[in-house]
Amino acid sequence: MVIVGAGPAGVRAAQTLLRYGVRPTVIDEAPLPGGQIYRQGAIARGSARERYGFEWRKARSIHAAGAELAAQADYRPCTAVWNASPGLLDLVREGEIDTLPYTHLLLATGATDRVLPFAGWTLPGVYSLGGAQIALKGQHCLLGPRILFAGSGPLLYLVAYQYARAGGRVQAVLDYGSRASQAKALPALMNQAGTLAKGLYYLGWLRARGIPVFHAARIDAALGAGRVETVRAIVEGAAVEFACDVLAVGHGLRSETQLADLLDCAFDFDDAQRAWLPRRDAEGRSTVAGVYLAGDGAGIAGAAFAELAGERAALAMLTDHGIAVDGARVRALARHQRSLARFRQGLDRAFALPPAEASCGDEVIVCRCEEIRAGALRAAARQYDIDDLNRLKALTRIGMGLCQGRMCQAGAAELLACCREVPLSKIGRLRGQAPVKPLALASLGEAAP
Amino acid sequence: MNALHVEVAILGGGLVGASAALALRRAGVATALIERGQCGARASGVNFGGVRRQGRSPEQLHLAQRAHGIWARLPEIIGTEGEYVRSGHLKLARSQADLEKLAAYRDKVRDFDLGLEIIDGASLRRRFPALGSDIAGGSLCPEDGQANPRLVAPAFARAAAHAGAHVLENCAIQHADTQGGDFLLSAADGRRIRSEILINAAGAWGAAVAAWFSDHLPLQVKYPTMLVTEPLTPQIGVSLGVEGGGFYARQVARGNVVMGGGYGVALPGDRSRPGRAALSELGRTAPAVLPALACASVIRCWSGIEGYFADKNPVIGFSRNVPRLLHAFGFSGGGFQIAPAVGEALADMVTGRGGLAMAERFCPGRWG
């Protein structure tokens, strides 16, 4: 049994398998378990409480379980899966490639920032929200000195709070969501009153320190000579400018689904996440026998949900392997997951994902790797009547660069749907192609023939 | 639903079918171009992109020379240059014996005016310093070149549409029949097409289409393995091949090196993936040919689906069994350069304006 990813889902899955006497292989790109949310720096500075805020107990628990799996499982850190075919993974670790057979595979591949283009987003000093958080948690760096937070999603307030607490000069928080939509989401959010309270605490804490928080705000442009100096935003319809050295912007998260795609799992379009996600049953089974999914890689549901989903998927793997599992535990996990799912619906309502701005000018770069501008996408779409993202890729190179569309796919899809006036669900998704991340050509040649 | 009635229906919206549709429209023939998916999205659109005459057999060189003239006029014909450049094509010899084979080829095709130049190892390294040290020599065809298949293949279909062809995409033919001397084609979605002449330009699926009419042709399907690196500083302007095959590479204007060699595997649903052994072989061969590649990263690999005949020649010719059924497929990994000329030749054959030089080498009946 193989687990890809050692974040909350992967760690809990490994722990569960170990408990039943199965020793899994755990592949993780990071040097230490924890995933993005509970990322551990090479050198821990300050207390866990300072670094992980309210989540420090959860972080400590995941780290402890991570240490347990590192000792007991076949744990392979700093290792990436660059390709997958039925029953076989292709791995790379520090330039050395290898293959790993599996009978049961859990994909707990996590998520990255959902990046949307706007004027000036490629200027130095513009960071994704996740990137800003990694700088803080993984590298103990405060980006700035003056940092502005903008976008949507619960992470916005959390990271702003973490920066302010760590001494960062937070200029303002610009929330895409309106107060009205957040108020409407309150009943659903009450499903996890504790988590809701934490969110409100972050908001209150920021306000109490005089950090302005704006609602119904969207970024119009990041401006500056050679790096970001000013951010122009539209707040409740009016243009407002903010001076800053760094803009940390979050348009939600996107699941890392390439491996599920390479393994031919069926995908469905998810309206709330505005993305195609691998289809899975309540226990985490994909549509391909022997392939399981858990955590944010199978749809954004947060770390708490990921822990439950990881454990539940591991129990499903054991069951399918003919090992009897604790039925009461499965039912308890299911109950807890249902409650969290209702909370997630509230979050989705409170923090609707911003679509690509129709105002995204033709001169704005959408694909950084290949330097493709919005105007080139729109022109090709009209010239060739394109209503399919792969066709757009073939004709414009969008998604053909180093990141293979991991960064630009969301933006390109939004722009294409907007330009052709078709629903996002109708334009398809980029086909997964190996390598999932760039791979040294010479490494390929060192494989045993 | 009423059937669309045309003189010529073409099955397959790849480069052969699309260029035939364009040529037929220019001759004023009512034409339908029928494609199961999207035009130019299969082998025509995902191949290596070599626009090469060097290395072809004399019978193919007649078509290749005709195509050479068409490639030079792409903007006028299809409205884009498709990144076509006459960069030169350099075929490398890894041994003295291979270099002698290249020289023998030059002598054999002297009548075709390819301008082939045999270059010894020392001169080669002087002129192309990016090449590795254990290359014995090479043969340069200065006017051969490269193009971007992703752009060229769909542009031919678009030009055919602009010229008045009925271009039917996402039109999978489920049933084909002859009726009163006409061909009657029925698509899965209910569309029907009636034609007097049918051109089978279905590429790797050509033998399956031929079999609908009891023409059984020995087509073998293969899946070439290709990859592309991150952009590198300029290394080499010419497109590269190797005597004996197995490796080909070109560096595009952006700096990425596109290369291929070996074959991959089929997946369900008419898809394919690069082969593990082929990738591994590329990882060894490429840095030996271009040492700068030892430090390059691969950003994507892919495969296509191609039809091959054992003699490496396509079938281009009328069926022996069914009147007015014209086959044109099985280009055996070398269709990209000659396809535009094949399209014109097919139009000539349909309109009775001319035949094919050395037609017996392409004849569907050549297996007896």
Topology of this protein?
The complex is a heterodimer of chains A (449) and B (368).
Chain A: E1 2-4, H1 8-19, E2 25-27, H2 48-52, H3 56-72, E3 74-76, E4 79-85, E5 88-93, E6 96-101, E7 105-107, E8 111-113, E9 126-128, H4 129-137, E10 146-152, H5 154-165, E11 169-175, H6 179-184, H7 186-189, H8 193-208, E12 213-214, E13 217-223, E14 230-235, E15 238-243, E16 246-251, E17 253-255, H9 258-262, E18 267-270, E19 275-278, E20 291-293, H10 303-320, H11 327-350, E21 365-367, E22 372-373, H12 374-383, H13 389-396, H14 409-420, E23 439-440, H15 441-445
Parallel strand pairs in A: 1-2, 1-7, 2-3, 7-20, 9-16, 10-11, 10-16, 11-12
Antiparallel strand pairs in A: 4-5, 5-6, 8-17, 13-14, 14-15, 18-19, 21-22
Helix pairs in contact in A: 1-3, 1-10, 4-5, 5-8, 10-11, 12-14
Chain B: E1 4-11, H1 15-26, E2 31-34, H2 43-46, E3 50-51, H3 58-72, H4 74-78, E4 89-93, H5 96-108, E5 117-120, H6 121-127, E6 137-141, E7 145-146, H7 149-162, E8 166-168, E9 173-179, E10 182-187, E11 192-200, H8 206-212, E12 220-222, E13 224-231, E14 239-242, E15 248-251, E16 256-263, E17 265-267, E18 271-273, H9 276-289, E19 297-303, E20 306-308, E21 315-318, E22 325-329, H10 335-351
Helix pairs in contact in B: 1-7, 1-10, 3-10
Task: Describe, in plain words, how this protein is organized in 3D.
The complex is a heterodimer of chains A (449) and B (368). Helix content of chain A is 36%, strand content 22%. Chain A has 449 residues and is of the alpha/beta class. Chain A folds into three domains: 2-112 and 254-323, 3-Layer(bba) Sandwich (FAD/NAD(P)-binding domain), CATH 3.50.50.60; 115-251, FAD/NAD(P)-binding domain; 365-426, Arc Repressor Mutant, subunit A (Orthogonal Bundle). In chain A, the strands form seven sheets. In chain A, strands 3-2-1-7-20 form a five-stranded parallel sheet. A five-stranded parallel sheet of chain A has the order 9-16-10-11-12. In chain A, helix 5 (154-165) links the parallel strand 10 and strand 11 (169-175). In chain A, helix 10 runs antiparallel to helix 11 (327-350). Chain B has helices spanning 15-26, 43-46, 58-72, 74-78, 96-108, 121-127, 149-162, 206-212, 276-289, 335-351; strands at residues 4-11, 31-34, 50-51, 89-93, 117-120, 137-141, 145-146, 166-168, 173-179, 182-187, 192-200, 220-222, 224-231, 239-242, 248-251, 256-263, 265-267, 271-273, 297-303, 306-308, 315-318, 325-329. In chain B, helix 1 packs parallel to helix 7 (149-162) and helix 1 (15-26) runs parallel beside helix 10. The mean pLDDT of chain B is 96. The chains are: A alpha/beta (449), B alpha+beta (368). At the A-B interface, helix 13, strand 23 and helix 15 of A face helix 7, strand 13, helix 9 and strand 19 of B. Strand 23 (439-440) of chain A pairs antiparallel with strand 19 (297-303) of chain B.
